[in-house]
């Protein structure tokens, strides 16, 4: 018998595969995981090739320790997808493929237990009635358990234990009462919804004509078919996804669908809509994949997708690389959202990879948005994506809100009263909503209490000792906090420079607005939702359900409240502090601002109440606000694209960014200059424009100085060829702590 060798991808910056001898008893195939020695450690790698020959001398070849037999191999298509991503984003294959697998799979010591049979509890008909009635009012742990059982149909023992240490004892007591049933199931089957033929088919809304033709177009698509579903807020894009999926999944009994959402907080809303819709379609199990899941849960969900048991995978950007052997359609909701771009490690765009994946497999892919990215809009202009339009709100009574601008200069000139940055008209409108029992939403994109703490006497401003940035005042936490490195300190009683005790917060963040609203609109129940108020797992969902339940009159928050939520009783949206983004040096700032304002405006007037949006501004004549007032995405997109074309900006050129981090700014800049010089030796770089190396806006973070070099080309191929040739040269350069390359950067 001839010897067997494997070529293995490891999570390592060197873009090569590593050869090993494989003489284990288990059979090995490409796409399987192996545990191998690497230096002094043992690591998990992915087999890319199995051969009978290796160029590595026999005495230097080491042997595979184990082959993971618990997990069937990933497909050749999946390997090709990660190879493409690695090549396009200038990374090693293993650096892309291995982090795309659940963490639990990358620990060989857990392989034997990982996908073992599981115990699963489900509520019986008797329990469904009896359980809620017998729960003591204050037993919050019990309630949590009961809620988890009711919501998810069943509960896996391991997950129950994670909820509460005594959960199993409780579940066993309920078992004795006959309130729950217990069964042992294979890991891959764990998530399949138990077939329940008595589940009544949901009543479906009658599609609008526009929705119907969108669904039809997606259903009838042949081969690779990218769609840009441009639908105003509240136009029922979700219904289009649901119907298209239902048709495709019903037509092919083993087909899988991948649905991407930009933010974890949107998954519960989607999950329940999808579960409700597909409960009647037997065996249609739905799993979620996002970073908020516990490790075991994520591994099981991934496994259910990988083995084809999960028919629908709902996830955030990382799910774009899930293993889905029977993938038949991909949906990217809110495709314009910057959250689809990973900002560290492999800096990929999940939206762009979704397109590539659909192309590779010859599938329909639906990009949905009320404000598509200009990249996607331009693709549609050129006929590469098919545009599907939903121009009206789906609910007959729901019309788009009216947008009014409150001219802050004018308010001041006329001497009209304002309270802490909240103008008179906005306060009056908030009060009116409160009287009518309607909800309002106040949006500003700055968390904390105040962005600065300053001394009037000497001009001191509290700054971060580790970064070139001011620190943000957080009042409830009684702390100064750096939003760049996490540095924290107590709020000083007096100015550390001159001793003046009159130091004052400057500017406004969500905490301060929350405080102001409580006194300016007496009697209103004000709730704040931002990254600070939702730090604990599950808290965002709890806060949002308070809003939906009508327990909140005014919701104040950052972009977290702007996205996707279908609030039924919000009739007023107030926008504060939007002007700062109008004059940013980042050419994408206005596109982002417009999308955010359209999104947040779209929260108003969804349930049939007439909606109103009030934007406080110093620049009421700005074109962006005018487009917003007319809900004119198309006009905004066309004029912005024309500007971009004139200025030779994306999507008319392709860009890449080299970032360097050094102990000094000089070191970082010197590295980038050498890097720029190295480009002159690369033939493909003749078609590439190289800009000057510049410091980042926040130049120092955690004592590290940062600078960047932008290169661009009208030819994507020339840029890619340049990057490929540039990498080895960059590896030869010294003098910085770190550097990284980003392809198609969003923040410049
Ligand atoms: P979008 O994602 O486009 O902002 P949603 O999918 O949230 O819009 O839909 C807005 C609302 O319209 C939801 O409450 C949804 O249930 C409802 N809806 C969608 N389609 C229809 C329809 N054809 N008839 C009636 N209501 C619909
Ligand atoms: Zn001072
Ligand atoms: Zn800092």
TrEMBL record:
Binding site for Zn(2+) 2: 464, 467, 482, 485
GO biological process annotation, one example: DNA replication, synthesis of primer
Keywords, ordered alphabetically: ATP-binding, DNA replication, DNA-binding, Helicase, Hydrolase, Isomerase, Metal-binding, Nucleotide-binding, Primosome, Zinc
Residues reported to bind Zn(2+) 1: 455, 458, 495, 498
UniProt domain Helicase C-terminal: residue ranges: 490-642
GO cellular component, one term: primosome complex
Primary enzyme class: isomerase
One Pfam family named in its UniProt record: PriA_C
PROSITE patterns (alphabetical): HELICASE_ATP_BIND_1, HELICASE_CTER
Cofactor: how and how many bound: Binds 2 zinc ions per subunit.
Cofactor: Zn(2+)
Residue stretches making up the Helicase ATP-binding domain: 218-390
Reactions catalysed, as given in the entry: ATP + H2O = ADP + phosphate + H(+); Couples ATP hydrolysis with the unwinding of duplex DNA by translocating in the 3'-5' direction
Signal peptide coordinates: none
UniProt subunit comment: Component of the replication restart primosome.
Family assignment from sequence similarity: Belongs to the helicase family. PriA subfamily.
Protein function: Initiates the restart of stalled replication forks, which reloads the replicative helicase on sites other than the origin of replication. Recognizes and binds to abandoned replication forks and remodels them to uncover a helicase loading site. Promotes assembly of the primosome at these replication forks.
Protein name in UniProt: Replication restart protein PriA
Protein source organism: Paraburkholderia domus
Source lineage: Bacteria, Pseudomonadati, Pseudomonadota, Betaproteobacteria, Burkholderiales
